[in-house]
Amino acid sequence: GENVEQHPSTLSVQEGDSAVIKCTYSDSASNYFPWYKQELGKRPQLIIDIRSNVGEKKDQRIAVTLNKTAKHFSLHITETQPEDSAVYFCASKDDKIIFGKGTRLHILP
Amino acid sequence: EPEVTQTPSHQVTQMGQEVILRCVPISNHLYFYWYRQILGQKVEFLVSFYNNEISEKSEIFDDQFSVERPDGSNFTLKIRSTKLEDSAMYFCASRILADTGELFFGEGSRLTVL
After folding, report:
1. What does the pLDDT read at residue B62?
2. Residue B84 reports pLDDT greater than 90
3. Side-chain half-sphere of B43: how many Cα atoms within 13 Å?
4. What is the pLDDT of residues A2-13, one digit of tens each?
C-alpha cells in the first residue's frame, strides 16, 4: 500500500541554524505533497505544500523541494526560531492524505 | 475564518460502549475525513467521505467503525463497541478539492477508553 517514510524522527538545531527534514513516498501517482506542523496538544496545520509540476517552493523561511524521479521531498527551515519547535509531518497521496511518522524539531537556545 | 469544529473535545467511556464523535466541516467543502492519532504517534488515515458515501477507508476502519452525514452539516464517526486501543485523538478534516486542496483539521476529540 501507500507509504511515506520520514526522517529524522527527532532533530535538534541551534537557534538561527537551518533544519532539513526528508521524506520519501511510494506511490508514483502522487501529485500533492503538503507539510504540516503540529504543536503540542494542537491540531496539524498546513505550513507549505508543493504540487508535482514544480520542483521547489518557498515561503519566507520555509521551503520545500521535490524530486519526483527519486520520489522524495524535503522541508527546509532557515534561521530557525524557538517557535519553530514542534512536530512536523510530511504527507502525500492526493485523494487521501497519508502522513509520515513525524519529526520532532527542537530549537536550542 | 471558517473552521472545522468537533464535539466533544474529550470523552471518557467504558470498554464495550458505543461512542459518537461529531464534526461540522467547513460549509463549502465537499470531502470529509477522519484521522486518528494515538498519543505521541503519527496521524493515521481512517476514512474519506464524498457525495454521501465512503470513498476510501484504511485497515483500521473495520466493522466497529461507521461514518454518517445525517444532515447537511454534521459528519459523525461512530465506534460501536470501544476497545482500550481505541483511545486516541480523533481528528475530523475537510477540503474543497479531492486532490490538491488544503486539508483543514478540527481541534480533535480525545477519546479515553477505560
Report:
1. 94
2. yes
3. 32
4. 689 999 999 999
B42/A99 CB distance under 8 A: yes
The dihedral sign for the CA sequence B9, B4, A89, B35: positive
Q: Which residue of B has its CA nearest to A34?
A: B102
Chain B residues within an 8 Å CB radius of A42: 107
Of A18, A9, A28, nearest in space to A66 by CA:
A28
Give per-residue pLDDT as tens, A57-98.
Answer: 999 999 999 999 999 999 999 999 999 999 999 998 767 788
Nearest to A97 by CA among A36, A39, A47: A36
Q: State the Cα–Cα distance between residues B86 and B100, nearest whole angstrom.
A: 30
Model confidence band, residue B71 (pLDDT cutoffs 50, 70, 90) = confident
Cβ within 8 Å of residue B1, ≥6 positions away: none
CB A54 within 8 A of CB A66: yes
